[in-house]
Amino acid sequence: MKYATFSPPTDPAAMRLGIVAGDRVIDATAFRTKWPSGGFPSSLLDLIIAGPDAWRRMADLTAGSTSDAHSFAAKDVRWRAPILRPRKNVMCLGLNYFNHLVETSKPLNREIKTPDAPIFFTKPPTAINGPYDPIPWDRSVTEQVDYEVELGVVIGMEGRNIRSDRALNHVFGYTIVNDVSARDVQYRHKQWFKGKSLDGFCPMGPCIVTADEFGDPQNKRLSLTVNGEQRQHANTSEMIYGVAAIIEWLSRGLTLEAGDIIATGTPEGVGLGRKPPEYLSDGDVVEAAIEGIGAIRNEVKAI
Ligand code: MG
Question: What is the pLDDT of residues 71-88, one digit of tens each?
Fold first, then answer.
């Protein structure tokens, strides 16, 4: 299943739960009256929190419902971030691909050394942005806006102290995240949080592909272009800490909850690693793609 959050052309302010079926988006709201005893999950986050019985029910209810009465052409809807406002910060991995660690260590005069444990930081809910919406660039705040394509993991089953061999059972699905970064702000403050957290600096989507459909998260191509020019191209097999290991490390003494989002780090090819470094400018179009999910495309817009 591919789940999305969208606004229909007939009601541009509404936020609807959608199921992507080819070039159609099925409107789950059309099945509200068929949901037993109320409690219809009106958002994707609500559905994820409702658990596996609700996931199966939604899949059964909406299967094949691509008639005009129940769905819209995908090109006609406004695609929103699949989870509009996560309940906590997006949890992110730093330096989780070796070649990216190398490219960023050189300009920063940092020792090239694989981390002994994952590096974690977060991005706040206010950074979440739609899959095709502009990335706001406040030039009074940063002159060094950079991109990072990353596989996003959405937790489905709550857990703590999750062993790596059970970890993937806790995943609801996968999405694309662009971990947009203000490099000057990121390094000015030592901790990365601020430079990673500006408003709109976490575009995500266009959908969440359920874990059963996505398959092995360590064998997917990911890539990123700027104005059509390829800048990043790698495979998730190159992660230093794979998704299962990340969940084991993160969940030690820390409860992961349904709807939590983990961004798993970016491969080489970021603007900081270019010689000389090359950052995004007003009007640049950044497209981040992952095999099995699709692509998100965001224009940088000076504000
Ligand atoms: Mg990143």
Answer: 999 999 999 999 999 999
